[in-house]
Write a sequence for this structure.
């Protein structure tokens, strides 16, 4: 069924007219729909632009979207998706997939302008491969740190300067807007009793992440201290080491203060929580800046995919932000976590003021990123359409 669906999707895309291939979005997983949806809505809405949405996930929510200027096509991973990328005809392709050209999905033999949409506040040069972003023509940067890191990479590798667009982070804006209505909840009383502080554990993935290395002990310590604990694993953890999460659910699932959430795009657990426990996930930056709530970091080994990251001479945001966002506790002293959490929650008011000031320094276009981003996508699409028409004047 997967092969037939891929073949059908591939053929369907190839039959699209040029105007439906002017702006194309590609998504590896339905987990990324919440990054694409506001951009697509704005492109279809105020700008009246056609968008073709391609995805490799047959459960992607984008496949259900209905709009006269929107077309959704599923091409599951495999031979036909690889061939689709190799031979794709499009003016611009917007994607959040890293390592284009480094793995099985290559750049098209046709002149396609690839726009990388950053969906994280983290840095580009430690957690990711050194060349993870080299293949893209435009990169929609979240903040000044992305521009500085990518320009340094270009200089060191003698690469041509690319379009590093000052975009921002719509997800952060959504958190800011929604968080206002939740702030009062933290001090409300439930059933006549003081509300238990809610701790959200949402780390990165891999063998040295929290759930893989010390998740059991940490969960036990937090529950014993009386906290309400929400675990929210990275989707890569669920794919690569699901047994780690299953063991926590089996052991603590019946505990009245234990809660499990497996949807990375949801926001309710973010709003209900009072503090985040994290390791090297860039989500910690988003959480602190967007919700103005502190983070307790577990001091585990850095997640490094680029062994030469120090050559850039720039400290990654995941590291430099730690001292700004909260506190750090050793994995060998997890028994100290409850006291660290209590102290961080006592300074909530001053922490909010600090994050408000820091946010404007670290993130572009707060409040206007979608409008700014869609206009740039449309501009690039128009520019590439003119180039295409000049090359193929009779092409329809």
């Amino acid at each position: 069924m997967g092969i037939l669906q891929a073949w059908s999707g591939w053929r369907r895309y190839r039959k699209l007219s040029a105007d439906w291939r002017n702006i194309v979005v590609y998504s590896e997983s339905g987990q990324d729909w919440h990054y694409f949806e506001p951009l697509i809505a704005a492109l279809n809405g105020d700008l009246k632009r056609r968008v073709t949405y391609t995805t490799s996930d047959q459960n992607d929510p984008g496949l259900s979207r209905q709009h006269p200027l929107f077309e959704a096509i599923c091409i599951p991973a495999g031979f036909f998706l690889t061939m689709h990328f190799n031979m794709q005809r499009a003016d611009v392709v917007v994607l959040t997939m890293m390592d284009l050209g480094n793995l099985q999905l290559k750049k098209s033999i046709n002149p396609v302008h690839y726009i990388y949409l950053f969906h994280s506040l983290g840095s580009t040069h430690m957690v990711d491969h050194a060349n993870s972003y080299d293949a893209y023509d435009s990169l929609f940067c979240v903040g000044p740190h992305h521009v500085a890191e990518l320009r340094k990479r270009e200089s060191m590798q003698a690469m041509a300067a690319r379009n590093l667009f000052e975009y921002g982070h719509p997800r952060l804006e959504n958190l800011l807007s929604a968080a206002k209505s939740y702030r009062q909840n933290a001090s409300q009383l439930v059933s006549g009793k003081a509300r238990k502080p809610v701790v959200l554990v949402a780390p990165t993935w891999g063998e040295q992440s929290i759930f893989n290395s010390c998740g059991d002990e940490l969960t036990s310590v937090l529950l014993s201290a009386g906290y309400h604990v929400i675990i929210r694993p990275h989707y890569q953890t669920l794919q690569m080491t699901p047994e780690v999460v299953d063991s926590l659910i089996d052991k603590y699932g019946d505990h009245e203060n234990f809660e499990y959430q497996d949807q990375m795009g949801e926001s309710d657990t973010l709003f209900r929580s009072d503090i985040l426990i994290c390791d090297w996930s860039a989500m910690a930056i988003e959480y602190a800046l967007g919700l103005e709530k502190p983070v307790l970091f577990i001091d585990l080994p850095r997640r490094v995919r680029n062994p030469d990251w120090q050559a850039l001479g720039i400290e990654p945001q995941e590291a430099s932000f730690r001292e700004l966002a909260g506190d750090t506790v050793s994995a060998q002293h997890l028994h100290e976590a409850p006291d660290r959490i209590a102290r961080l929650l006592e300074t909530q008011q001053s922490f909010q003021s600090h994050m408000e000031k820091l946010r404007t320094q670290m993130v572009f276009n707060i409040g206007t990123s979608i409008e700014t981003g869609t206009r740039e996508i449309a501009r690039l699409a128009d520019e590439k359409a003119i180039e295409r028409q000049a090359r193929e004047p009779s092409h329809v």
User: Anything to note?
Assistant: The chain has two domains: 2-169+365-391, 174-362. Residues 174-362 form a domain with the Rossmann fold fold (CATH 3.40.50.2000).
